Every structure is written in C-alpha cells, then in structure tokens.
C-alpha cells in the first residue's frame, strides 16, 4: 500500500537515482564503444554489427528482469566461435545461429535450468576463457601487423615466428605493430594514472590516442571499413534457415548456447559480489539473455553475453538501477546514428591492441598457480580445456573439459577401500567399504585374484555405500571362479 505524502512535504522523486545512473551509463558507453567495434572486427563481421548487439544489450536485455546491474553486449569470449561460424557457414547463417541460441536460452530459462549452469566446473569455464584468450592474442598479433591470420588456433600460434620475420621486413607492418603495441602500453599504464584521469576508460583513451597519432604522422595503417548502420543489418533469409539441416550448424548452435549462457551466469555471480543490491534471478537472467540474442539473430548481428568488464565498470561508476545499462544502449544508438563516419578513423591495429589486452585478461595466471597448489586435478582440467580449444576448436575443447570434469568427479566419488584379514587359519576375510564403481574395478579384482586359491574366502560388502552393476557382476563372476578351484564357495554378505 502506497503511503500518502504528509501535508506540506514534497512527494518522493520518481527516479531517485537518476543522477548516479546517468553518470554510470556514460562511463559504460565509453567502455563499450571500442569493445563493440573491436569484437566485431575480430569476429570477421562489419563493425556496425558490434554496435547493434551493444544497443540491443542495453535497450532490450537491459529492460528485462534478472540482474539489475549486469551489462550485456558482444563479448571477446565468443570472438573465436563467431569467426569460425562465419568462416564455415557464411555471414547470413550467423543470424540463424544467434536466433536459435536465443530461443534455446528462453526455453531453458522457462524450464528453470538457469541455476544448473552454476554446477558447471569453474575450472572448465576458466579453461574455456583461457583458451579463447590465447587464440585471441595469437590472432590479433597478426591483425596488429596487418597480416592475414591462419584459420585454426594452433596454426595461429605456430605461424607467429614466420609472421614475425615477415613483419620485420615490411615498413608498413612495423608501423602497424607500433600502433598496436602503443595501444596496449597506454591501456596498461592508464590504470596507474590519478583517479581523475582514469574517469576516461583506458580502452577509449588508447584508441583515441592511436587514432590521433596515425592522423598526425600519416602512418600507412588500415582503418575500420564503415557502411551504414541500417545497411549492415541483414536479417537471415529463408535460404539461411535451410542450413539447420546441417549437423555442423546444430553443433555450433549448441556451442553458442552453452558458452554464452555459462559466461553470462558466471558473470552474474561475479557482479553480485561487487554490490549489495538485489541478487540475480538466474532463470530470469537467462531468459533476458535469450530475448536479446533472439533480437540480435533477427537483425543478423553478433551474439551477446553479459560482460564482466562493462558490468564491473557500471558498478564502480555508482550505478544503482538498471536505468544505467538501458541508457548506455541509448548512447550507443545515438553514436551509431549520428557519428558513424568517426569509426572510419579508427586504426585496425589499435582495435587489435584492445583485443590483445582483453585476451590477456581472460587467462587466469594467478588462478592456475593457486589451483596447482591446492587442487592439481582442477588445474589439470583447466589447462587441458585451454589447450584443447587451441588445438582443436571451441566446441570440442569445452566438451573435453566437461568430460574430464565428470571423470574426475566420478573417480573421487568412487573411493573404495579393500581390507584383507588373514589369521593363518580358517577363511580369509575381505572387507569392502566406500563406493564400488567400474572406475575402481581393476584395482579391486587385482587384489581379490591375488588371494590364495586353496583357501575359503568371506567377502563382506556391508561397508559399501554404493555398488554399481559392473562391480556387482564382476564380484559374482570372481566368486564363481574362485569357488571352482575346489575350495569352499565364497561367502558374500550384504550383497543385495
């Protein structure tokens, strides 16, 4: 029930936090602008499509319930997957993939599956991000030199020595590398400046300075190719939907759905730790991401996820409500509508530098060291996932990481202890305790088959919490073989 205002007092303001949210939205806009453009260029699509996804992330996803302060847009974490999809299936198919991803996210949110993404091993997610970071860094080093990067992640890394030789012999490549390296240096050094200077985001400052340097020195450096915002938006046609019969395209959709959902919900958990406001409703947030991706798919734009860089900037800038993320989408729309030609001045190696810096931050160097000291199995899963993504591809690398995580969990959950008591006379007593699964079966059978064949055996299973079908069958078969040697039948207790 709404409380009436007391006589003589003014009513409470309708938007009590508008000042804080307005200021925060401008900060997020300045952070998002170079990242939207950089992610689009690195993904092999027109720069304007990155802005379209950022606009939808603000104006569509930003309005929906779920997480109040989390900001969505094109993410560096999907760059590799988008590039592979566009290279393999073509740009028109991207809209179909993103639309299908959004619809699947909406379905999963309606089925309340959002909370289950928190059950994915953190090591797999961090390994995924580390692998993506390595591929991004390797690929953008070629872009920084103005060279064409190989297709696969492994070829990108193996080809770097040859690319270095090519770059050293080219004046244009060296100039381009200098712009990219300068961009990275500015971004790293920007964090050490006084707080007043850091009010301008480091990525934006680095890109602006690189642009001014290229213009002032007349450097022979490639810049962003610009078309119109409306001309870049190309909804997928009927022919593109015919590709859904391709199993490869369906696998790509599943990869987009898994990775985009996991990254968004893990980001939500991280953002919740940064503020004391309302907590994230995971199922609603998954549906909000799905709605945004569905709209992006219809527009033929890049997929979106929640992005921790923009989200943390939103919180640190003092945002209080979702109005800040909606307004940041409005600023992106105004920029794309009124100043599209400004994009054509941005040097490509500067955007490559922004992406190299972003890729470096995706690699959890300290996290790997801490995991190795405490949980070496988890550290191994992280490293194998990252290496698999580089060596194979994104989808299969994540599946390898998930499979390793399941195997590790099953191995740890199937701890079993076999104790043999032999008093020299009478039957040998063997006691099994714990969880007997097929993973421990070779060890159990080796111990039982080493028992003397001419002595009776009593096998006590009363200490088992779990006995799977494989172990039950194997133990029964062992008992029959042991009894066939002319000794008394093996006595098995507590086998149900």
UniProtKB/TrEMBL annotation:
<dbReference type="GO" id="GO:0055085">
    <property type="term" value="P:transmembrane transport"/>
</dbReference>
<feature type="transmembrane region" description="Helical">
    <location>
        <begin position="123"/>
        <end position="147"/>
    </location>
</feature>
<feature type="transmembrane region" description="Helical">
    <location>
        <begin position="249"/>
        <end position="271"/>
    </location>
</feature>
<feature type="transmembrane region" description="Helical">
    <location>
        <begin position="89"/>
        <end position="111"/>
    </location>
</feature>
<feature type="transmembrane region" description="Helical">
    <location>
        <begin position="22"/>
        <end position="42"/>
    </location>
</feature>
<dbReference type="InterPro" id="IPR001902">
    <property type="entry name" value="SLC26A/SulP_fam"/>
</dbReference>
<feature type="domain" description="SLC26A/SulP transporter">
    <location>
        <begin position="18"/>
        <end position="385"/>
    </location>
</feature>
<dbReference type="Pfam" id="PF00916">
    <property type="entry name" value="Sulfate_transp"/>
</dbReference>
<dbReference type="GO" id="GO:0016020">
    <property type="term" value="C:membrane"/>
</dbReference>
<feature type="transmembrane region" description="Helical">
    <location>
        <begin position="49"/>
        <end position="69"/>
    </location>
</feature>
<feature type="transmembrane region" description="Helical">
    <location>
        <begin position="379"/>
        <end position="404"/>
    </location>
</feature>
<feature type="transmembrane region" description="Helical">
    <location>
        <begin position="329"/>
        <end position="358"/>
    </location>
</feature>
<keyword id="KW-0812">Transmembrane</keyword>
<keyword id="KW-1133">Transmembrane helix</keyword>
<protein>
    <submittedName>
        <fullName>SulP family inorganic anion transporter</fullName>
    </submittedName>
</protein>
<keyword id="KW-0472">Membrane</keyword>
<feature type="transmembrane region" description="Helical">
    <location>
        <begin position="202"/>
        <end position="222"/>
    </location>
</feature>
<dbReference type="InterPro" id="IPR011547">
    <property type="entry name" value="SLC26A/SulP_dom"/>
</dbReference>
<feature type="transmembrane region" description="Helical">
    <location>
        <begin position="291"/>
        <end position="309"/>
    </location>
</feature>
<feature type="transmembrane region" description="Helical">
    <location>
        <begin position="167"/>
        <end position="190"/>
    </location>
</feature>
């Amino acid at each position: 029930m709404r409380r009436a205002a007391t006589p003589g007092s003014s009513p409470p303001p309708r938007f009590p936090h508008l000042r804080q949210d307005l200021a925060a939205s401008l900060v997020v806009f300045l952070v998002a602008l170079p990242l939207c453009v950089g992610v689009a260029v690195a993904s092999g699509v027109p720069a304007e499509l990155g802005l379209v996804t950022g606009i939808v992330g603000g104006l569509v996803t930003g309005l929906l319930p779920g997480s109040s302060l989390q900001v969505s847009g094109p993410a560096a974490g999907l760059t590799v997957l988008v590039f592979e999809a566009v290279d393999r299936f073509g740009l028109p198919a991207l809209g179909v993939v993103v639309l299908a991803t959004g619809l699947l996210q909406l379905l999963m949110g309606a089925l309340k599956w959002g909370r289950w993404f928190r059950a994915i091993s953190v090591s797999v997610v961090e390994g995924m991000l580390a692998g993506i970071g390595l591929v991004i860094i390797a690929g953008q080093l070629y872009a920084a030199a103005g060279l064409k990067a190989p297709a696969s992640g492994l070829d990108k890394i193996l080809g770097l020595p040859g690319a270095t030789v090519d770059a050293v012999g080219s004046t244009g490549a060296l100039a381009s590398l200098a712009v990219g390296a300068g961009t990275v240096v500015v971004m790293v050094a920007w964090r050490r400046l006084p707080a007043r200077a850091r009010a301008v985001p480091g990525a934006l400052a680095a890109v602006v300075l690189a642009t001014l340097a290229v213009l002032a020195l007349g450097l022979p450096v490639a810049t962003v190719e610009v078309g119109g915002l409306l001309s870049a938006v190309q909804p997928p046609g009927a022919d593109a939907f015919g590709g859904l019969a391709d199993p490869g395209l369906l696998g790509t959709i599943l990869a987009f759905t898994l990775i985009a959902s996991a990254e968004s919900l893990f980001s939500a958990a991280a953002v919740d730790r940064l503020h004391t406001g309302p907590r994230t409703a995971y199922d609603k947030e998954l549906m909000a991401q799905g709605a945004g991706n569905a709209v992006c798919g219809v527009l033929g734009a890049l997929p979106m996820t929640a992005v921790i860089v923009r989200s943390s900037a939103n919180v640190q800038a003092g945002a209080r409500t979702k109005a800040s993320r909606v307004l940041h989408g409005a600023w992106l729309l105004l920029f794309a509508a009124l100043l599209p030609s400004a994009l054509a001045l941005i040097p490509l190696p500067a955007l490559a530098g922004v992406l190299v810096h972003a890729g470096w931050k995706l690699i959890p160097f300290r996290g790997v060291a801490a995991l190795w000291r405490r949980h070496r199995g988890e550290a191994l899963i992280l490293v194998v996932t990252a290496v698999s993504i580089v060596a194979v591809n994104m989808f299969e690398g994540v599946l390898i990481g998930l499979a390793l995580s399941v195997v590790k969990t099953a191995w740890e959950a199937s701890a079993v202890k076999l104790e043999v008591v032999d008093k020299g006379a009478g039957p040998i007593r063997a006691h099994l305790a714990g969880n007997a699964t097929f993973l421990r079966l070779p060890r159990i059978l080796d111990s039982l088959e080493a028992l003397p064949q001419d002595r009776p055996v009593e096998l006590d299973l009363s200490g088992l919490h779990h006995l799977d079908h494989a172990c039950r069958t194997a133990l029964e078969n062992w008992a029959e073989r042991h009894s066939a040697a002319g000794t008394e039948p093996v006595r098995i207790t507590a086998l149900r």
